[in-house]
Design a protein that fits this description.
The complex is a heterodimer of chains A (164) and B (138). Chain A is α+β, with helices and mostly antiparallel strands and 164 residues long. Chain A contains three helices and five strands, in the order αααβββββ. In chain A, α1 (2-45) runs antiparallel to α3. The longest helix of chain A has 44 residues, at 2-45. Chain B has one domain. Helix content of chain B is 44%, strand content 17%. In chain B, α1 packs antiparallel against α2. The longest helix of chain B has 47 residues, at 2-48. Chain B is rod-shaped. Classes of the chains: A alpha+beta (164), B alpha+beta (138). At the A-B interface, α1 and α3 of A face α1 and β3 of B.
């Protein structure tokens, strides 16, 4: 009887471990993908800038077009509806994002800089040397099946710098 | 004797978990590599304005070098191969789209022990998305 109970306990333990392994691997991969999506958003948004300002040697991002590109990329890659709620795919909470356009509308490069940027959502700090677009995505909870394990916040951020 | 039988049965079952652990490690590594390969191909396509034949061939070769049990015709590659150009305003028509899928042939270890066929023990891992083009219009 003792061997039977020990065997059942071991099988249960191994089962829990297998579920944990699969869930954590999937979560890590999805975080990596979220990072690629953040890169794509920042990269795409940085493509649109004011041509008139550019002709005068200044980079001023076209924020309206940049935001359109970011939202399209988020919806396509993360399978979201128009209000950025997941329709299918891995994530289950409403996706939130922050975008920072740091350009020559308000700052002069390179003399006033380096400027220390602090992400409001993550507290992450970075120095800005050139016009930059930063996108931070908050995807919410990861899918964890074990009741004693939960991840409530999944954040990835990416910056795209315009190098002269 | 009864104790011995119980221990033997338990060891057999626990062996399945050990093989599942290894299989999961392998599948996770392969899928991780696939994500990297697709991201690299997408970045190259962004600069070229489309998925060129060279980019697709390189992507296929990378996938085949990692997924040794997959044949070339089993890989799904549905990508934009016509040139797309950089635009002043955001335009969905000038985006490069891609859909890459690879079969994962062993999802559960010891599938035959549980009566799962090879076909049922297979799943496609598909990566789908779009990217803006950086190619300047002629």
């Amino acid at each position: 009887m003792k061997s039977f109970i020990v065997s059942i306990a071991l099988i249960l333990l191994f089962n829990i471990y297998t579920v944990f392994q699969i869930d954590s691997d999937t979560y890590r991969r999805q975080l990596e993908r979220l990072k690629f999506v953040a890169e794509e958003c920042a990269d795409s948004a940085a493509l649109y800038y004011d041509l008139e300002a550019y002709s005068q040697g200044k980079i001023i991002y076209n924020q309206d077009e940049g935001i359109k590109a970011i939202e399209y990329m988020l919806k396509t890659h993360l399978k979201l509806d128009d209000s950025l709620k997941p329709v299918s795919g891995y994530w289950q909470d409403q996706i939130q994002y922050d975008v920072y356009f740091i350009d020559e509308k308000n700052y002069t490069f390179p003399y006033e800089f380096p400027y220390e940027f602090i992400d409001a959502r993550t507290g992450y700090k970075m120095y800005i040397f050139e016009p930059t677009v930063i996108v931070t995505i908050e995807a919410g909870r990861g899918r964890m099946r074990l009741p004693f394990l939960s991840i409530n916040s999944s954040i990835r951020s990416s910056a795209y710098e315009y190098l002269n | 004797m009864k104790e011995f039988m119980v221990i033997l049965a338990a060891i057999l079952l626990l062996m399945l978990f050990a093989t599942q652990y290894t299989l999961q490690q392998v599948n996770d590594y392969r899928i991780g590599q696939l994500q990297l390969y697709v991201n690299v191909a997408k970045e190259k396509a962004k600069i070229s304005g489309r998925f060129t034949a060279d980019i697709v061939t390189e992507l296929k070769n990378n996938i085949l070098s990692t997924f040794k049990d997959v044949e070339e015709d089993e890989i799904i590659i549905d990508v934009t191969m016509t040139p797309k150009y950089r635009t002043v305003d955001f335009d969905e028509r000038e985006l490069i789209h891609y859909k890459i899928g690879v079969p994962i042939k062993n999802v559960i270890a010891g599938a035959s022990f549980f009566g799962i066929s090879d076909n049922e023990n297979k799943a496609y891992y598909i990566l789908e998305g779009a990217t803006t083009s950086e190619l300047i219009a002629p």
